[in-house]
Amino acid sequence: MSGKIEIDSRKLGGKPVIKGTRIPVYLIFEMLANGMSIDEILKEYPELSEEDIREAINYASKILKKEELYEISVR
Known about the structure:
mainly alpha, Arc Repressor Mutant, subunit A, two-stranded antiparallel ribbon, 3 helices, 2 strands, about 45% helix, about 5% strand, globular
């Protein structure tokens, strides 16, 4: 796992966060999906760095590469 992402059961129920913060990786993706730029995110969360955001993206990419798909039968 990335050195910038941590999972700690005492922080946000074990959701992946940017190390040293309580900012979850999913929040960064929500902001990006809603059209915010990296610069806008950095202004909103000055404790983050551009490297933190890029590490969150890299982390999610690695998770999705490992994702397994299962066919669900609907009757």
